[in-house]
Each structure stands twice: as structure tokens, then as C-alpha cells.
Design goal:
Strand order of the largest sheet: 2-3-1-4-7
Radius of gyration: 16 Å
Number of helices: 9
Bound molecules: adenosine-5'-diphosphate, zinc ion
Number of domains: 1
Oligomer: single chain
Number of strands: 7
CATH architecture: 3-Layer(aba) Sandwich
CATH superfamily: P-loop containing nucleotide triphosphate hydrolases
Shape: globular
Amino acid sequence: MKIIMLGAPGAGKGTQAIMLADKYGIPHISTGDIFRSNIKMGTELGKKAKEYMDQGLLVPDELTTDLVVDRIHQEDCAKGFILDGFPRTIPQAECLTEALAKEDDQMDYAINVDVKDESIINRMAGRRACPNCGATYHLVSLKPKKEGICDRCGEKLILRDDDKPETVKKRLEVYHEMTQPLIDYYEKEGILLTVDGSRDIEVVFDDITRVLEG
Ligand code: ADP
Ligand code: ADP
Ligand code: ZN
């Protein structure tokens, strides 16, 4: 199963992607996580990506697309994968379509997690992230078992630099301008599934899996 998670920053893409990856035993590929781990390791890519991320802007396509195309050709992706945060622009989507088409292949679903901007601001302020495994929690709606500590790997949770309200506002603008057009793109490809992401995490998850298994 090859799945794309679409949606605004903070819509719950990552939360659902991790649950789907666990359920179906396929890798969760988050470009945001890949960039953050490069920043942590101090790589050239990390240095370049950070300049954009800190401002709430997208990392340029040429730094992003090849990385994902390489990743999905690794062995663990043979049975499928979940892309979380990629594609985010039409050119990225076109490159992905072309890369798969070369092997007579295509994505199965683009799941659009739909949440209004007003709720997003709330969610982001309460988001706490694990810098080690990429899991996210929320101060109110999804508390870790032990305060401030990741359930999955025991790392200390952080508030991401780019989750400050000013940066979130910018990221939402960028989302509407650059990423929202992908909803039409995948609607035309016939693989779009829109879910109402404003409901509880488990309800959203049930909705998605019902369609995937239906
Ligand atoms: P969120 O989970 O809030 O949607 P991500 O962790 O996916 O955020 O991404 C964080 C940042 O990393 C983005 O704001 C952007 O700067 C950069 N980024 C992630 N994925 C991409 C991509 N596909 N294209 C360009 N930039 C990206
Ligand atoms: P994205 O990957 O789209 O940026 P996340 O999955 O990181 O979004 O979720 C953003 C924040 O909202 C996190 O703090 C997460 O725990 C919380 N969250 C995710 N889904 C829901 C939901 N359905 N209801 C309430 N809070 C949610
Ligand atoms: Zn963790």
C-alpha cells in the first residue's frame, strides 16, 4: 500500500501516518523528520534546510525530491510506504508520479486530513515532539504516559522551533499557496480520500482504515 498524507501543518498527518505504519507494517517517511535529523547531525543538507524551515518556508524542491525518490527505492519500501509531508508542491508531485511511472507503478491513496486554520493554531501551540523518533503528543488531546517523555523511545519531548505562533501563521500561508493545489491534483488522479480531521484521533483513524480496507 502506497499512501500520501496531505493536509495543513498540524492537521494530524504525522499522528495518523505513524498509526497506519504500525498497523500495516510499512515505513513512515516524513521529510520533516529527515530534515530535522540532518540538522541534528550538522550535514550540509541540514544547514541549508534549516534556513528555510526556521522561516516557515518550504525547503527547495531540488533538495527534497531526489531524497524521497531514493528513499522509496530502498528495500523496506517494497511492500509500500507512507509519505508524510511529501509532496508539498506540484513539481514534487509530478516528480513522484514520474519516478513511479518508470516502473509502471503509482500511489494508491492520497489522504487529505482536513482541519480548519483556527483549530490548527491551537493544535500547534500544544504540540510536543520527540526529536528522536518523530512521535508527536499534545498537552491536552494526546498526553504522553509520563509528562515530557516520549512513550515510544523515552526521549525528552520538545516544542519545535517552527511551532511558535508567528512561524505557524507563515507555514499556513505557504500551505494554502503551495500545497493545497495538490488536493485537486490527486482528485484528478482519482486517488484522493478526504477525511474530517477535526474529530478525535481514533475516529479519524477508523475512517481512514475503513476506506483502505473497503
Ligand atoms: P508538519 O508536521 O507541521 O506539517 P513537517 O515536519 O512535515 O511539518 O515539516 C517541517 C518543515 O520542513 C516544513 O515547514 C518545511 O520547511 C520542511 N519540509 C518538510 N517537507 C517538505 C517538503 N516536501 N518540501 C519542502 N519543504 C519541506
Ligand atoms: P502534522 O503531522 O499534520 O503536522 P501532527 O500529527 O503532528 O500534525 O498533529 C499536530 C498536533 O495535534 C499534535 O500535538 C497532535 O498530538 C495533535 N493532534 C493530532 N491529531 C489530532 C486530533 N484528531 N485531535 C486533536 N489533536 C490532534
Ligand atoms: Zn520518541
